[in-house]
């Protein structure tokens, strides 16, 4: 399975993955998922929001145990973030069958669409739509960097954008959702444990900062006469780092756009996207507020107007304690850890009892081609997931 997925959407110059929603690489990932389901004789279905499902047992019976993750990537992402969860799900099902386990409940594997939000700017679109956490009109209005709307992209990929929307009946059939994911930090690397259980996801969001200045000649405009948004942007990046450090939060400007983007022209507009996360919502709101204030104050000095738009926000997620404790028991005392990364499991946790397993990442690196996990640890993850599915569905 791993070998088949490896070439899909790989950018040869960086070895990173560019598997964006509703692109040919995404279609190849979906075809792979469908083939994995059909090879195993699982009932395959795709919901109205582009999420894929592979069922063992009757999908309509209720109290299903569902596992899975996503196959899309960030720009030049690693091989593990997402795919490890989907591959491990199929492998865990194979393991259950090899053990001769007889599920008393329906089991399913899911691939949620557009988890990373790399193309349309909003993460977890597939699970958010199903859980009713993203309005249909809001989803239709999302646009990629080329101005293509989500609706147009879905249509071009052969899907019906008019059919998207909340799917409470499907979610009501799920008794538990467990997502396995590569760890995106080094907490497990410092332990003897290859697999951990998630406690919580930090609240996080994305804010667009538009710095409006004035385009002018780089060679003839006196420094005092400039309204250079790049200066305001640069100072805001530094302020974000400082405010986040002081508050014990995280703040990152990882994406930036410049107009007109000419070497010998002062920019007219710099657009930077802030990703910020914190242990609690109050801290997050305070940090983002301080970054915005610093930007506006600096803008006054530079003659630059600053406009801040919140593009997404995901509240803190505290995974269901009962299910989490059950996983720890099934895995003989696996460590419990929080994460700053968002997941479909976090979105679904508002509708369904949800838990996560993390597989040790020796470097902690993620959202990068350098992301990795040892083969033995991945196999331990499969065994752990099989133990969990057996414990939840077969007894
Ligand atoms: O950005 C995130 O937290 C994620 O990996 N979707
Ligand atoms: Mn990710
Ligand atoms: Mn992920």
What does this structure look like?
- By secondary structure, the protein is α+β, with helices and mostly antiparallel strands.
- It has 12 helices and 17 strands.
- Strands 3, 4, 5, 6, 7, 8, 15, 16 and 17 form a 9-stranded mixed β-sheet that branches.
- Helix 3 links the parallel strand 5 and strand 6.
- The model has no long low-confidence stretch (mean pLDDT 97).
- (2S)-amino(hydroxy)ethanoic acid (HGY) binds next to loops.
Could you outline the blueprint of secondary structure elements for this entry?
Blueprint: H1 2-5, E1 10-11, E2 16-17, H2 24-39, E3 43-46, E4 52-56, E5 64-69, H3 83-99, E6 107-111, H4 125-130, H5 136-141, H6 150-156, H7 168-172, E7 174-182, E8 195-201, E9 204-212, E10 216-217, H8 229-247, E11 250-259, E12 265-266, E13 269-277, H9 281-302, E14 305-314, E15 317-318, H10 321-330, E16 336-339, H11 344-348, E17 354-359, H12 375-393
Parallel strand pairs: 5-6, 5-7, 7-17, 8-16
Antiparallel strand pairs: 1-2, 3-4, 4-6, 8-15, 8-17, 9-13, 9-14, 10-12, 11-13
Bound molecules: (2S)-amino(hydroxy)ethanoic acid (HGY) and manganese (II) ion (MN) (2 copies).
